[in-house]
Each structure stands twice: as structure tokens, then as C-alpha cells.
Amino acid sequence: MTRLTKTIKLRDVAERAGVSQGTASNVFNRPELVREEVRSRVHAAAQALGYAGPSPKGRLLRAGKVNAIGVAAAEPLDYFFADPWARRLLREVAAVCDARGAGLALVSVGRGGPLGWGIESALVDGFLLRCAGRELLVEIAQRRGLPFVALSLDTAEPDVPAVDIDDFGGARDAARHLVALGHRHIAIIGIGLGDGPGRASPELARSTRFVNVRERARGFWAGLAEAGIGPEDVPILVGQDDGSMIGPALAELFQTSEVRPTALLAMSDRVALAALDWLNHQGLRVPGDVSVVGFDGVPEAEAAVPSLTTVEQPYRQIAERAVAAILDDAIPAGREVLPLSLVIRNSTGPAHKAD
Amino acid sequence: MTRLTKTIKLRDVAERAGVSQGTASNVFNRPELVREEVRSRVHAAAQALGYAGPSPKGRLLRAGKVNAIGVAAAEPLDYFFADPWARRLLREVAAVCDARGAGLALVSVGRGGPLGWGIESALVDGFLLRCAGRELLVEIAQRRGLPFVALSLDTAEPDVPAVDIDDFGGARDAARHLVALGHRHIAIIGIGLGDGPGRASPELARSTRFVNVRERARGFWAGLAEAGIGPEDVPILVGQDDGSMIGPALAELFQTSEVRPTALLAMSDRVALAALDWLNHQGLRVPGDVSVVGFDGVPEAEAAVPSLTTVEQPYRQIAERAVAAILDDAIPAGREVLPLSLVIRNSTGPAHKAD
DNA sequence: ACTGGTATTTGAATCGGTTCAAGAGCGGTC
DNA sequence: GACCGCTCTTGAACCGATTCAAATACCAGT
To answer: Where is the HTH lacI-type domain (chains A, B) (predicted)?
Structure first.
């Protein structure tokens, strides 16, 4: 579709209408400044030439503002539609952008260079960085020189603008909920703590480089501590966030423990859901035999059977704060923390009698 | 964050390095053309000035290619993350774009004007139009003058480039499947056929302006006709695609029919899933009492309990074809039709004895 | 006829790069 | 010493608009 007819530009229209280019520009952007007669003459010329209106490309250069924000992740682009958390958050980001008439571009950091569409080259006014563990993204974004906000940043660098959540508080609330229901034998299902199924030590959870994993662990312990339950009494299962290793880990836990746990505190809804699945297959009733609390509040948690009690992120607020940061030049000075809320559904209930 | 220091541009770097702007440009884009010594001099100057590399804005104007495609819908932006079908398709589109190093921008058609980010102003190389009934989108895209492809276009205009699916064939396969299982009393759950719960006449289904609804209906009838079942023997339930009116419609059907259907042919997975839900609540077993076939093949269909037999769209192929159309200038001449495939899961089984 | 004021238009600068024909510098040949 | 073939560099045009100070047109008032 190589155009032989070279593109018609504003200049051509102006020429044909017998006006200056400046006037032609005004016809399209500030019609009230142009006399009616001239206006229609220009429109007629545009019509005759098949001019579609000022090209955004040209405008951009002059105006500077693209009126769009980019969301970047280290994962491939389809992550934004495949991952439950990302999808849930992006939905709010999209809604906020829509309400403000701004565009939304998805950016993956994989291939960069002057060739591919990356943080270096995306035509946007700023970035929302979905960082998980790699501050790499932040570094690249800084290089680009556009405003950016990190979401769920995994490092505690104070000078990086970030909108984050109170993992500690949310986790503590989750633990308190179980404690209030009478649970005393509780296990944690972790994420990002290792490769194989099995258990992790509290030290590992305390020292992982993933800040939110650390904080969630600390929160769980803090809540349990209020009932006199110490970290050493709480097994930590190693799982992948995609839920792949939860089965074996749970099997080991339920077979070898002298006292089987009556409740599970998961560090993400995905692992919680995987646990739910495993429990169902084992014929264990939820919450009859085992209660389960998730983390994140993804839509799947609500749809699960039984629906999952979980600590929900304030998606809308995160989106609003982050988008405003970019669009209103209101970059947070450092890390801003938003509260989470415990949503109680049907996967938690009173502790049954200990065996 | 108004910058007082005015932006550093390539020209500044060139000046400071004592080379021409053209050479400076080459340093960043075609380093092999520049002598090592000069190259490092320019880099040093860039470093000193805090120059982040050529701005995409400038490049764009000259180069023409944005290297990104826009996906547009008439719905608000969050539709792309909230709607199961859109999300599923976008996931593939994203994957294809990622593989080609292209960007992905989401566009809603709501607010346009020179102000908001719409089809008129999005900085992309072309559009994928998710049309549902309104050729409005097509019209706007034509005006913009960029290449575009319509997805699931609801009009049969032959000159609009479109990547579409064989609704008729898919629906026929679904009907054949039920027939082969011995079902003879079958109802159709329609979409886009009206406002209230209740039934629609075959005439209505034949004349609706939604092409794919028409085609799916025709396909169902064609498959059933092979077993001697005529359209007049098949009630058509009116439902909203969001599943909201399925319950009442089904209730009416199951209470008033002299012969209760043993199987349901749904025009979308969403209504099928809603039907599944209703049946569960009524204590009717699927597929024991009633078999259900969906349409679209969204991820939720697989996750449902029981998993839903459905006619699956070739998402990957659609995405590949459509993205290639834009990025490779391979716009289809007219409507291209891709085949669907029946995925048999656990929501369909042999017909039980008629009551 | 001249003046002041308002409504339109114009022209030129700018935005930030890319591109490419033409020129400069240089080592080697005949 | 003139000429050739190379490798780098330069300079200027161009991409498609927006913007704004200055120029012009038009009109009422005196």
C-alpha cells in the first residue's frame, strides 16, 4: 500500500484555499478565530484534496503532549491480559485513562533498541512501571527522562516515585481474621521463595529480595503473634505464583505434620486458588476442614467455589493515583502506601476441633 | 515539574562534540558509519549534557512509522480488560505484537476531537477495529486514513477489510454435536435479540442486524435440520450477553414447555456460563439432565464446573492475520473468514430419556 | 480625512530528528 | 604530481504541524 500520491498536508490545503498555513491550522484547531467564509473555503479545499485533518504526528512534535500513558512490565506484552492481577489493575487504569480522555499503551521491556517498541521509544507522556524484583525497569525509565511511577516496587529506594500497598497491614489483618475464628494451626503459602516444592525457613522469608513477600510474611507473623503463635510454629510452603508447585507442597505438609493445619494464609490469590483446588481434590472441605485466605483480591477469587476470603488491593485508588501522577505532573516524592482491605467470603470459617 | 532547563536536543550534543548534527544522529542510529574516535566524543558530550538519546517524537515525524498498532472499540477502555472475549483476543494480539517488537495502544471511540485520544489522534500505524454492530468505527477509521482491519464486523459490506470467523459453520458443528449425542429437544440461548427475558421468533433471529447472531442462528438450524428438527421446534431465548436475563428466560422455558429441552445451544460463552449457573442452582445436573454448548471459547469456559463444551475462535490466527495486515501492509481485500473448532468438554453428554 | 480599536491573517520560527547528495581527507598508483 | 577509490563528515532539505508577534482590514467616531 505504498502511496504514490504523496500525502496531502496542511500546507497543500492552505495553498489551494488561498490562505496561509497558519490560518488553515486555525480552521481545524480554533475555528472561532477564522471568518466563516474562509473557514468553509478551507474545508472545501480539504474535502477536495481528501485531507483528513491535521496529522497527529506533526501536532505531537509541536505540542509535546502525546496524551497517553504507557504501562511497562518486564514480561511479554500478553502478560497484561493473561495475569489476573495485572488484568485487574489495568482495567482500572484503563477506566481512569478513559475518563480523562487519555490513551493507554502497553510496553514490554524485552527488546529495546531503536528498533522495537520499548520504554526507550514508546510515544507516551510517562510510564507506570510494574516492577517485580527488577529495578531494571526503573533504571531504563530514568534514562528515558519521562515521568514515571513504580507500582508494587520491590526495592525500598526512597527516591523512586512509587504507589504501593500496605502489605504488612493487609497480611496482619488476614492473620487476625483466622485467629479470631479460633485457628491456631496455620500454614503460610509463600511465593517467590525458591524453586522446588517444600518448606522455607522464616529467615529466608525475612531476607528475600522481594519486599512485598517479606512484608506479607512479617504481617502474617505479627497478626499471629497477637495470639501467641510464633514464626517457628508456622510452616512456610514454597510455591510458584502460577500455582504449579502448591499440590506437592501441601501434600507433604498434610502427610508429615503431626498437627495438620486448620487454615492457610496465602501470599497471593493464585496460590490460594491452587490450594483450594488441591484441597477439593483431596476431599477436604473448605472451610469445614481447612480455611483459606488469599491475597490480592483478583476477580477469580470471587468466582471461585467456595469464594475466596482475601486481602484486596485498592485497585481503583492505585490506578487513580498513578495516572494522576503522570497526567497531572503530580509525581509522588517517594513511596506512597495505600491500605488494603480484608474481604471475607466463604473460604474461611471457625476452626474445627483439633485432631 | 516544569523544566526550567530547556530540553537538550541532538543539536546541542552535536555542537558540544564539535560535529555536525547529521553525524551525531548517525552515532545513535548507525554507529558503524562513524569513526570510533568521533563516536566516543559524541557519547561523552551526550553523557555530559544528560542527553537520553534521540527523542522518539522527532524521529517519528521523519520516519513515519510509529511501530505500534491501535485496537479500537466503541466501549470504554476498560472493556479490553473486563470482557472475556476481548481479553482473550487481546492476549493473542499482544503476544503477536510482542514477537514482532511492535507496540500496542488501546483506543476508545468515546470522546474524540482534537483533545482526547481517539482514532483520530492515536499515534499508531493502523487499527484493529472491534466492531459490534456499528460501522461507525469503520467510518471514523476510514476518515483517519490509516490502514485498518475490522474484527467480527457486523455488516457484510464487501469493501471493508475484515478478519472474521465462520459463525455459521461453528454453530452447525455445535448443533451436530448435540444431535449426535441423541438430543432432540433443544433450545437456543440468543444474544442481542431484545431487551426483556422471554423468547424470540426465528424471524427476529433471521433479521437482526447483527450478522454474527444471524449466522449463528442459521448454523444451529442447519445442524439441527440434518436430524429433521425445524426452527419452529427450537425455542430461542432472549438474553443479554452479560448473562443478566438468562435465569428468568430459562425459568420460563423449563416451567411452561410441555417437553423440557435436554440441551442448550448458546450464542456465547457468557450466556452459556450464566445458564450453567442457573441450572446448578435449580439442582439440574449438567450434563446429566441438560447439556450445554457455548460459543467463543473464552478461558472461563474451560475453568467452569463442569467445563464448558464450546465452539472456539481461532484467537491466535485472528491476531496474527490482523496484526500482519497492519504491520506488513497486507490488508485483506475484503472479509476473510477463519474456521472455528468445536471443543468438547464436560458440559455435554448423551441425551437422557425424554420425560 | 484621520484616529483608535477590534477582528482576521500572515510569515516565520520552532518542535527534534533523519536522510542523502556532495565534499573533504587520505593512502596508494602509475 | 595527477588521479583514483575509500571512508567519514557536513550541510541543508524535509517531516507536518502549531504558535505568536506583527501586519492588515474594517468600522465607528469625530
So the answer is: 8-63
| Structural domain contains residue A317 | no
Residues B303 and B191 in one domain: yes
pLDDT digit string (tens) for B191-201?
989 887 889 99
Residue with C-alpha cell 455488516? B155
Nearest to B293 by CA among B224, B227, B235, B348: B348
Domain co-membership, B50 together with B101: no
- Rounded (to 5) percent helix, strand, coil in chain B: 45, 15, 40
How high does pLDDT run on average in chain A? 91
Q: Do B101 and A111 touch (CB under 8 A)?
A: yes
In this structure, are B159 and B274 located in the same domain?
no
Task: Mark whether B14 and B108 lie in a shared domain.
Answer: no
Per-position DSSP letters for A217-278, written without gaps between them: HHHHHHHHHTTT--GGGS-EEE--TTSTTHHHHHHHHHHH-SS--SEEEESSHHHHHHHHHH
| CATH, residue B268 | 3.40.50.2300
Nearest-CB residue to B114 (from A1, A29, A76): A29
Give the pLDDT confidence of B312-324 residue by residue, as tens digits. 999 999 999 999 9
Strand C: which nucleotides have any atom within 7 A of a protein Cβ?
A: 7-21
Considering the domain architecture, whether residues B86 and B19 belong to the same structural domain is answered as no
Domain boundary among A147, A164, A181: A164
- Output the pLDDT for position A2: 43
Structurally, chain B folds into a number of domains equal to 3
Q: Which residue among B18, B43, B63 closes a domain? A: B63
Q: Which helix (H) or strand (E) holds B225?
A: helix B211-225
Say what percent of chain B tops pLDDT 90: 77
Pairing outcome for strands B263-266 and B236-238: unpaired
B18 is in which domain, residue-wise? 10-63
DSSP single-letter state for residue A32: G
> Quick one: which of A252, A253, A267 has its CA closest to A221?
A267
**Within window 164-203 on B, which residues have Cβ closer than 7 Å to strand C?**
none
Are A34 and A75 found together in one domain? no
**Within this chain, do residues A179 and A290 fall inside the same structural domain, yes or no?**
yes
pLDDT for position B3? 45
Instruction: Judge whether B99 lies within some domain.
Output: yes
- Give the nearest nucleotide to A9, CA to C1': D16
Residue A326 lies in a domain: no
- Rounding to the nearest 10 degrees, give the CA dihedral for residues B37, B40, B41, B44: -160
pLDDT tier for residue A111 given thresholds of 50, 70 and 90:
low
User: Which of A346 and B329 is assigned the larger pLDDT?
Assistant: A346
Q: Does A322 reside within a domain?
A: no
Rounded CA separation B179/B224 (Å): 7
* pLDDT (tens digit per residue) in B60-75: 998 888 999 999 999 9
